[in-house]
């Protein structure tokens, strides 16, 4: 456990599992507590490949940011990035183009505290409280507008958020509102767990989340359902695919792509 976790945890209920800290445990991080590890191990008992999937999403994110910079994008809004780790969005983007600007968006107090301490270290990088379900409030945030020129093309990256939001909360409508707000020439990139290749894992994992987080909703989806988040956008090749298949650096990563059952895709806004 890091000193940062100790400081942040001092004012929080560390006996209750936390989505962000569970995700940190999956990627081998130390910013988590016993309750988080216990919940994570229950999920890993059902699907031990989730550790690999978490790392594959990180690798996908690196490739996406690199691609978007190559397309001339210098502004990024990252929703649901989780607790800072290695190869954070601003580090990737600014290593390629130093003037790149990045805003991280989160609601989780653990993520916000860590991110403000570790990521918002200069005028080109910021952290705001918000989420994809409240796009109007998000895009009106003064910190976001101080860093991001909302009249110029930008990229919205959503990883690790949509897969937890049930249909009852209208995530497709909210993402569409965000899409409509983006200037022409902007991009939307998403990653989302799907259960096409592991349908038998859906119900047990949902049951763990119900038991641990007292949630009754089921947010599990298939690839075809996730495709709806990119409606109205011009798809970037190769479309919405398993993350291992999205512009891989190594052709060997194409072997058994469904073993990492997370899909990722990028769409470009071409019109007003």
UniProtKB/TrEMBL annotation:
UniProt keywords, alphabetically: Methyltransferase, Transferase
Any single GO BP term: methylation
Domain of life: Bacteria
GO MF entries: methyltransferase activity
One Pfam entry name: Methyltransf_19
Name of protein: SAM-dependent methyltransferase
């Amino acid at each position: 456990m890091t000193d940062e976790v100790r400081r942040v945890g001092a004012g929080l209920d560390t006996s209750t599992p936390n989505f962000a800290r569970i995700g940190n445990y999956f990627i081998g991080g130390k910013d988590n507590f016993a309750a988080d590890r216990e919940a994570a191990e229950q999920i890993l008992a059902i699907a031990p490949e989730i550790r690999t999937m978490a790392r594959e999403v990180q690798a996908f994110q690196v490739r996406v940011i690199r691609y978007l910079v190559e397309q001339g994008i210098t502004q990024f809004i990252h929703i649901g990035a989780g607790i800072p780790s290695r190869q954070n969005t601003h580090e990737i983007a600014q290593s390629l183009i130093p003037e790149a600007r990045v805003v991280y968006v989160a609601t989780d107090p653990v993520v916000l505290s860590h991110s403000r301490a570790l990521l918002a270290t200069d005028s080109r990088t910021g952290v705001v409280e918000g989420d994809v379900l409240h796009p109007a409030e998000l895009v009106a945030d003064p910190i976001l507008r101080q860093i991001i020129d909302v009249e110029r093309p930008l990229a919205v990256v959503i990883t690790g958020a949509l897969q937890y939001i049930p249909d009852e909360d209208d995530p497709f409508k909210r993402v569409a509102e965000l899409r409509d707000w983006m200037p022409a020439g902007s991009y939307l990139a998403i990653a989302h767990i799907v259960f096409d290749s592991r349908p038998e894992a859906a119900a047990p994992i949902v049951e763990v989340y119900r038991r641990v987080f007292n949630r009754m909703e089921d947010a599990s989806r298939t690839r075809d359902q996730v495709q709806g988040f990119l409606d109205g956008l011009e798809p970037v090749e190769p479309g919405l695919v398993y993350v291992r298949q999205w512009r891989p650096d190594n052709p060997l990563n194409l072997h058994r792509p469904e073993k990492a059952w997370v899909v990722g895709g990028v769409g470009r806004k071409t019109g007003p």
